[in-house]
Amino acid sequence: MRIRETGELWWKTAVIYCLDVETFMDWDDDGIGDLEGLVQRIDHLADLGVTCLWLMPFYPTADRDDGYDITDFLGVDPRLGDLGDLVRLIRTAQDRGIRVIADLVVNHTSAQHPWFKAARRSTSSPYRDYYVWRSTPPPDTSDQVVFPDQEDSIWTLDEASGEYYRHRFYRHQPDLNTANPAVRDEIAKTVGFWTQLGLSGFRVDAVPFFLSDTAKHPGDDITDPHDYLRDLRAFLHRRRGDAILMGEVNLPYDEQRLYFGDSDGDGTSDGDELTLQFDFVGMQQLYLALARQDAGPIADALRARPAIPRDAQWATFVRNHDELTLDKLSDDERAEVFAAFGPDPDMQLYGRGLRRRLPPMLAGDPRRIRMVYSLLFSLPGTPVLFYGEEIGMGENLAVEGRMAVRTPMQWSDARNGGFSRAAPSRLPGPVVEGGYGPEHVNVADQRRDPDALLSFVGTLVRRYRESPELGWAECAEILDQPHPGVLAHRCTWEDGSMVAVHNLTDQAVTVPLTLADLKHDDDAPARLVDLLQDGACDVDGRGRVSLELPAYGYRWLRVVHADDRRMV
């Protein structure tokens, strides 16, 4: 096994951790999390085994969309710190072996951005064409809005000029016009600036939306939207060769494949567009499988994954910072997940998702919670954690919309969960209350408890990092076995191979497997060695093995031959 390759394409076996500086740690006690607070807590991430830190927007903002309404792409929100603080964070993280990436939000700006203010002053402004306008009343576009509870059209009348500007998201977030080469130059300037300061790449927000206007400018040299994505990737690599673009592309697999830059779909060449893409399809099928206690949807999703370029990767996740979208499920399937995990309409959002975290959805059952995270880390791909997942944080449904899952990090059982010593009224939002509040769920307590979820997630991180076949396997081999509620899959890369078995049901089972390539007729059988607990089992001469799983049980089993030199 060529372990050295895992350092060159580092993202294929990374462990990514997403956080919002504003809600992570407040060091100056003004009520708002800051970069210095994050620096002071960087060893928590290092101890966990995180190798890549993803920062949600830290830029100057009008703060009407939790920082995604940006007023300056080249600055730091003064509430959080300054450029010097950011550089200190990057250097400190690098010292701990952690790369830093940040959100690249170039689909839109804030309506308070100087570009849009200038664009509104005059139709002849040089910034007018930085945005998308129309002079005639728009048709009904209520079916195109991203947030149907807030907007009923993607066009809003600018009364000063009498024209309409487009906003696929909120009306205070006008869309940038990427058909304009000057806008693309500004985006390149942004990418170049932050990589020069040390970022290792970007999580790219709303990729299909920001590409939708590209190639529509008369006389432009870009004739296909993907040409622009290729140009952006090439520019990034000229500035920093090992930097990544991790894209938010919530589309069916056959459409997602194009955003890797693999037009023929054979997966044999290196990609030249996005480096990683979130596996939204797999995530949604995971929740359907959990609701049904049937592993079939996960197996189907893994089989349906298209071949991707050799240097590309799927980003796998259980939870992210937005609503838990279920938009790729059918209406009946979505209703099943709602009934299982969010039956109260207040738990649902936009008719397509849930505004809950995993532990409350699973009624706090530690067996089931651990089984889900074990499954996440065993899937082929790069796992992404949202802050607080490692300790089992819950949501606060008293907070509006998606902010229910963006509550302050819970460091201790002190006031405000140890996040800040300011008055609670000054925090960016209230801490979680009840059974998932900081008096019950916090880092300080779990650091001292070897049986806590924090310790378990740390073990998963270490075993994942020691098993590069999980990141490098071209696909997951779904293993035949008789239990519909069990997922048994195998990941193989070169001479490394691992079998993972997960029981999604509340009943104990015995799982028989046949691994045909492990048949033997000598006295040196292959063994399956447990990676998450002590133990091993031999494979018989016909390649058969029988595995015991309790309710919601799971096992990671490395295939070990007599002459293997890998650590187990």
UniProtKB/TrEMBL annotation:
Name of the protein in its database record: Alpha-amylase
Annotated EC: 3.2.1.1
Chain ranges of the Glycosyl hydrolase family 13 catalytic domain: 18-426
Keyword Endoplasmic reticulum: no
Biological-process GO terms, alphabetical: carbohydrate metabolic process
Enzyme class: hydrolase
Matching SMART domains: Aamy (SM00642)
Domain of life, source organism: Bacteria
GO molecular function: alpha-amylase activity; cation binding
CDD domains assigned to the protein according to its UniProt record, in alphabetical order: AmyAc_TreS (cd11334)
Catalytic activity entry: Endohydrolysis of (1->4)-alpha-D-glucosidic linkages in polysaccharides containing three or more (1->4)-alpha-linked D-glucose units
Keywords, alphabetical: Carbohydrate metabolism, Glycosidase, Hydrolase
Keyword Phosphoprotein: no
Pfam families: Alpha-amylase, SupH-like_C
InterPro entries noted in UniProt: Alpha_amylase, GH, GH13_cat_dom, Glyco_hydro_b, O16G_dom_2, SupH-like_C
Family that this chain belongs to: Belongs to the glycosyl hydrolase 13 family.
